[in-house]
Amino acid sequence: MSEEIVFYHNPQSRAQMAHWMLEEAGAPYKTVLIDFAKGENRTPAFLAINPMGKLPTIVHRGTVVTETAAIIAYIADAFPAAGLAPPPGDPLRGAYYRWLFFGAGCMEPALLDKMMNRPPVERKAAVGWGSYEEVMATLKTALANGPYLLGDKFSAADVYVGSEIRFAMMFGAPALKGETVFDDYVARLSARPAAQRAAGG
Ligand SMILES: N[C@@H](CCC(=O)N[C@@H](CS)C(=O)NCC(=O)O)C(=O)O
Q1: Which residues of 47-72 are buried (b: 16+ CB within 10 A; e: fewer)?
Q2: Most buried among 95, 100, 142, 201, by the most CB within 10 A?
Q3: Among 99, 91, 78, which Cα is nearest to 155's?
Q4: What are the respective helix, strand and coil percentages of the chain, to the nearest 5?
Q5: Are residues 40 and 8 in contact, defined by beta-carbon separation less than 8 angstroms?
Q6: Where are the domains of the chain?
Q7: pLDDT per position as a tens digit, 71-105
Q8: Which UniProt keywords apply (predicted)?
Q9: Residue 180 — very low, low, confident or very high, per pLDDT cuts 50/70/90?
Q10: With contact defined as beta carbons under 8 Å apart, do 132 and 114 qualify?
Q11: Which atom of ligand 1 is nearest to the CA of 55?
């Protein structure tokens, strides 16, 4: 079975995060560009792979993986030589899972609330991400001792959470740009050769 990952990509999408991860992992991959304007993500052929019609999507060893955080975690485990995930049994695995899931389950919806000017939630206690302000304050504390979410060790969790922070800054989300912790973190991540290769397309 082919080791090559088929990567359904559009650089103007969350697929950019998976692209960076593929480069970090040194994974062999083939890019299939999907043009949203032409509806290429809504063709029967693509919907048969991902019924959500969304990117990123990868296929590896006959298995479809969707959801950016899952793709990033999957690649880290599939290419362990890159050392992008603490192995099961390593105490850091807990923090690693924590920040990956926090990124997908808390940061992303909080960020979308902000970007879409949704009204503050009425029952904060029942909403998993609480509030944008709490999410950002939590991340700020997590990165205070840095340089990465797992301390000295760069991991796939930084690819995901760091990408989200960088994306949020680009869209002018509050409480990020101008905060030294976040500015330094994003600068550190953006300087990585793999991030720069991915930024090229
Ligand atoms: N939950 C998904 C969201 C993916 C997503 O919404 N991707 C957008 C691009 S950033 C997309 O493919 N939109 C096309 C569409 O829904 O038609 C993830 O985390 O990967």
Answers
A1: eebbeebbbbbbbbeeeebbbbbbbb
A2: 100
A3: 99
A4: 55, 10, 35
A5: no
A6: 5-83, 92-198
A7: 999 999 999 999 999 999 999 999 999 999 999 99
A8: Transferase
A9: very high
A10: yes
A11: 12
Q: Which of 54, 112, 116 to mutate to test the pocket of ligand 1 (most atoms within 8 A of CB)?
A: 54
Q: Evaluate whether 79 touches 133 at the Cβ level (below 8 Å).
A: no
10-38, pLDDT tens digit by residue? 999 999 999 999 999 999 999 999 999 99
Fold matches, 5-83 and 92-198? no
Q: Which atom of ligand 1 is nearest to the CA of 104?
A: 19
Identify the residues whose C-beta falls under 6 Å from ligand 1: 13-14, 36, 41, 53-56, 67-68
Q: Report the nearest atom of ligand 1 relative to the CA of 56.
A: 20
144 alpha carbon – ligand 1 mean position (Å)? 30
- Please give the number of the atom of ligand 1 that sits closest to the Cα of 15: 10
How far apart CA 173 and CA 154 sit, in angstroms, is 24
What are the tokens at 99?
């920040």
How is residue 22 written in tokens?
């593929």
DSSP annotation of 42 reads G
Q: How far apart are CA 18 and CA 75, in angstroms?
A: 9
- pLDDT at residue 127, rounded to an integer: 87
Q: Which CATH class is domain 92-198?
A: mainly alpha
Rounded CA-CA distance 104/179 in Å is: 22
Within a 10 A sphere around the Cβ of 93, how many other Cβ atoms?
15
